[in-house]
Amino acid sequence: MSTKPRADAERNRARVVEAARELFAERGDDVQMPEIARAAGVGVGTVYRHFPDRQALVEAAAEHRFAEIEEYARTHCFGEDSGLERYFRYVGELLSRDRGLTAAIDSARGRPGSEPRGTARGSLESVVAEIVAHDRAAGLVRPDCTVADVYLLIGALSSVIRTGSDWARFLDLTLPALRDQLSTEH
Amino acid sequence: MSTKPRADAERNRARVVEAARELFAERGDDVQMPEIARAAGVGVGTVYRHFPDRQALVEAAAEHRFAEIEEYARTHCFGEDSGLERYFRYVGELLSRDRGLTAAIDSARGRPGSEPRGTARGSLESVVAEIVAHDRAAGLVRPDCTVADVYLLIGALSSVIRTGSDWARFLDLTLPALRDQLSTEH
DNA sequence: CTTCAATCGGAATCGGAGTCCGTTTCCACT
DNA sequence: AGTGGAAACGGACTCCGATTCCGATTGAAG
Predict the structure, then answer these.
(1) B28 touches chain A (CB under 8 A)
(2) How far apart are CA A109 and CA A160, in angstroms?
């Protein structure tokens, strides 16, 4: 089940991810594969043996961010006030700092079926579910708020950031709506 | 200032826009230029003489929608209840029906400086400003709501729709926040 | 019915992702 | 320590679209 990979193969893979990380974070999606390969000191062929396509690389490069987010979520989003709100603001912060992360998130919504590539991602998902549950139990969000809603808004947030709009304003406009719907009484 | 264009040139331009309209509306962004040219019964070169690049064509093809939206806005968004809310729902409806329109809107936010191509677009902008003013005067939206906020949300809406998410839900979550911020008091 | 500038059409060029294959490098086994 | 060959390498090459170029057409002014 686990033919240990060759030493240099592993090393190269790491180099590629590392190079991709920096380039994507800095310039977002518009970086060419040959450029990444060069920066990593390998040939394009090598990049493609490790990652089926460009998108897979984008996601792999962002993977560490998901772990980072999860870490933050676990330690800061289960207090007195709304964990979701903190979560959104933190993600907004990261997204606006790392243009590669937005690319990765946006990709998780391209064509159908391609759902969850990456492990850190899946584990983050369950934490988000816990936050939603926690906030709901504490009456910090409208009772019909679901995990799907969170993803919906994270996706929107990502697009807002990608286009260089005022994302803080977006959150200021949007987050209050998640709180108990005082004005939506109907 | 106006060397009247040759008759056939104008006819061809119209054919191209027409073909593009149908193809984009149906399949969104993934339609090739040669295909559009063929559908219009002209050569690619002709397409490019009329439109500097693919993007310009996408926008030209969506132009009529902007006129449509403006028409709707003028006649339905100045009543008793929130014009903005009606506006958002109408645009959501159109966007979800015409995949080319989302592409056009998203393009209006790509790289900097490329702001307003297209005339119908500019004229629509002023109507939106009027709606905001009208709603504000009637106390139907939070007093600090600006036109920029509307574009921010329309952009987000477009991205939500493009990714096939539940846009009605997005509006249900978001629009209440535009109303007077009862819960944002502090 | 000329004339010729505006138009046309579509072959050719360009740019960038992804593929192929001859060469090189590990490392399991002697 | 030596060696066979499977795995990994690199980068030239193929593919696919958008965009450009230019010789052949064609509308319309005179």
Answers:
(1) no
(2) 15
Write out the two tokens for A109. 């919504």
Asked whether A179 and A142 are in contact (CB, 8 A), the reply is yes
User: How far is the C-alpha of B92 from the C-alpha of B168, rounded, in Å?
Assistant: 8
Distance from CA of residue A61 to its chain's centroid? 11
Chain C positions with an atom below 7 A of a protein C-beta are 6-12, 16-21, 25-28
CA of A33: nucleotide with nearest C1' = C17
The closest alpha carbon to A101, from A33, A28, A167, belongs to A28
Whole-angstrom Cα distance, residue A142 to residue A179?
A: 5
Rounded CA gap, A99 and A25, in Å? 5
CA A40, A41, A45, A50 dihedral sign is negative
Tokens of A27: 């310039």
- Written as one letter, the residue type at A90 is Y
Query: What is d(CA A72, CA A64) in angstroms, rounded to the nearest whole number?
Result: 12
**Of A166, A170, A182, Cβ closest to residue B183:** A182
Cα–Cα distance for residue pair A172/B3, rounded to 1 Å? 51
Q: Report whether B124 contacts B50 (CB < 8 A).
A: no
Q: Which stretches of chain A drop beneath a pLDDT of 50?
A: 112, 183-186
- The pLDDT value recorded for residue B5 is 82
| Nearest to A55, CA basis, from A29, A78, A81, A74 | A29
Say if residues A98 and A58 touch (Cβ distance below 8 Å). Answer: no
- Quick one: pLDDT at residue A184? 46
Q: How many CB atoms lie within 10 A of CB A111?
A: 8
What does pTM read for this prediction?
0.92
